[in-house]
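Duplicate of #3305? Posting structure anyway:
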């Protein structure tokens, strides 16, 4: 496992200490969990952005297909 050194404002470190004690977990574990939560949030954001882009692409293709159908004669099948 790798080690990271981080500089934190005193107020943030006090909150980390308070919440880690409240949860009865070591401070390092609290920080790991917070980083994992942020990573998960970013992964979800990227997933939503990819789905939105794909949805817009599919919508564009669907509009093209609809326009082609609109151009057909009613009697043509």
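Output from current build:
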């Amino acid at each position: 496992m790798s080690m990271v050194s981080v500089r934190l404002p005193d107020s943030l470190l006090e909150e980390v200490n308070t919440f880690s004690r409240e949860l009865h977990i070591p401070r390092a574990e609290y920080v790991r969990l917070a980083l994992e939560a942020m990573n998960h949030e970013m992964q979800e954001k990227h997933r939503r952005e990819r789905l939105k882009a794909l949805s817009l692409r599919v919508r564009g293709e669907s509009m093209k297909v609809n326009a082609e159908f609109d151009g057909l004669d009613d009697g043509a099948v």
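Confirmed duplicate; merging threads. The chain has a mean pLDDT of 90. The helical segments are 10-22, 27-70.
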